[in-house]
Specification:
mainly beta; seven-stranded antiparallel sheet; 803 residues
Length: 803
Amino acid sequence: MVPDQEIPDNHSSSASDIYLSVSDLALGPPLLSFANADLDTSTAALTMQFLSGYFFSIAESETAPSTISRYDGVLPDSNFNLTATLDLSKTEGDISSSGDVYLDLSQASAADISVNLVEGQSNITQLSTYFQQLFNQASDEQKRYPLGSLQNIDSSNPLNPTQFALRTQPAPTASANISDKSYGDGAVVLFIQTAANTSGTTGSLPSSGSGYPYLIPDDTDSAGNALYSGAVIVESATLFDSIIRPAYLSQIGSDDVVLNTKLLDNGTASPASYLMAATGHVRGGTLDMSWEFYEEQPYPAPTAHVIVTVHTSDTNKNLQPVLLDITGMTVVPSAQSIKLSWSGQFDQFIYQLHHQLSPNDFQDITNQSMRISYPLTSTSTPSVDPDSNIVKITNSRSSTDITLGGYPWCNEIDDAEYRDQITQDLSGDTYSAIEKLASLQVPDIDVFTLSNMLFPNDNALQLSDASVPGDMALFGQINPSATTCLLSPLQATVVASNPAQSALVNDTQVFTLTGPAGATISWSLSNNADVCTDDRIEGREDGISATYKAPDISLLSSASFQEVITAVAVVDNADGTTSTYTASAVAIVSANPININPCFAYAVSGSSAPITFTASVVNKSAEDAGQPAWGGATDTTPDSAPPGIYTASYTPTLSTGAYGLETVTFSIGSVSATASVLVVKPGLYPTLHVGAGTWHAGDTDPDEVVAGNLTPLAPGASRQLAAIQTNMMTGESTDIASTPGCTCSILGAPVPDDGSLGSLSATGLYTAPALAKTTCVAIMFMTTSGSDFGYTVIPLLPGKTAA
């Protein structure tokens, strides 16, 4: 809410200028769009719509009293906006400890602020400067642009974002010619620092001349439609060092394996990372066999009793499992997959004990090194689930032939059955170690937070394809409507319930939730205007939409206000858990079905430029009732005008008298709205300071009376007006509003006066009507002699009658 004040606040009667006085001026939520495509000078446009309030243009000069030259109401569909250009190089993205994602604009200067509340470059400059000052004075907390909130995030995920930077990048096919259709084509690029970056350093961002690639492929389907509109790239160092390495070490379960992160020697400026085993072993099964036999010896020697023991051992002949020395094994990115490979050779110690118990006791012990070979190749292929943006990596490997080197000691084993069993067991033990080594099991990789950083908690970028040419590259389509929890319309303007217009005005709006299937949806309504919300939002039978009903006009305390419609969707998951999604939309309630701006204008007959009036039909609800028509002005609505917006031109003319209140009316069927123009003849200028501002003789500038109290007046409320006359010879000022030498009247009041414009006492006390039929009234004060006159404008509120 913009504070009630004059803009600028340093005006003086010695100036010749137009300044503005605002009241209840409310800005809607900020909307961010990206203005250009350039890595070096990326900019974004911040747009905020003015939703409600009032502003006066006040003319002042050193030779005449300040006067109200124009009054506008900021009403629904007025299309009043504030825009600012942001330098994205000074805009940081951050994530709070609670998961809130926002852009930090505290270091950014909101340059080129512009508003379209007023006409004329000098007025626009004044108002723009004022809002620039408001931005500069705002606290750092107020300069945080919220994007949303990350929910149910796994705190252990190394890809959890910690901060990010925004840039824009032109597409390779973008034209440098502004008149070409492809001009400005490009992408929004987020450089995201994740929890995997334990150093906390952010590094440097690429420039336009750095050769940084455009990451969205230009692949098309058979019909020529683009297959991809978004991409997520996970840096290879993060993928291999922070995700694959710890998972692989845990999988193989060996405490002496050292996996180092290396860089591929591929001649590029930014080589990809991969893993190499510097040292270490993988344990297989244990070979431990023992058998005995009796063997007849040549006569006269007795029969020999022999026990044979064979097992895998260390160099000290101690029993231990097969140990695969994996030094040199690599895990490397390879186009569409991740490739694990190793030459597959190691030497295994085999211990044999040949113990002859009789006829004489002796032992023959050997410990030989056996060369075991198995060239190993394992492929892990990523795929991505578009519903969750979870990357799954599936492992497969080529068949492995295990070759056992020669072991001459086995020739001493006469029983072929045992020789075969040793070979089989030894091969099997080795194979079990190979299985553990080759089956690279990478955990599921959740890239939801990366792919949807600009749309927290919404699956706006749905990924579909994955590859690992170096970094892990994921591609997909921007498709918010597919799974995003979204209310539509996001913003709707609805007319307050009014029994007098119930046959014409639609005071309801249907809001529909696009979101997860099978959800149970609850609806709620809230506002900050102290307007009762009971029984005004109700779910419909389809289970995904609700009917919103605007409050009765008698409850309104302003010409318009906002209400927030919230839908909470709860989904029962297959694993017994529940997921909750929330979406909100805004309903702007207007007291009137048709609004016209300016509501009031001051003009000189024959010398002032034509005045452009704009009528907006709220919610387009009245358009079915008849043809739109202007009265008192010439229709100038262009064919390109937005639906429900009409314009007309009025040339100030005065047929008789010194002044007159002319009206401009726009109507559709029986519904109409009226604006007023106070037209004076050439050479006639107001000489009285008229208004409701506080004034004390001798110590207050009479101009303060004009601009001191311009806030809208509630139904039935009263306001005392002053009419200050200044003696040009002495400079003394006097309030003559309640003196017999001054008369006052409500301009445009019907005859006989029916009170529809309120009432005015002889002493200048104005009382608003119980139900306003116009947005403002103009009140004229004049001396009895007719030599001095002045006027003021009082905006009127609908709804609540003053207590």
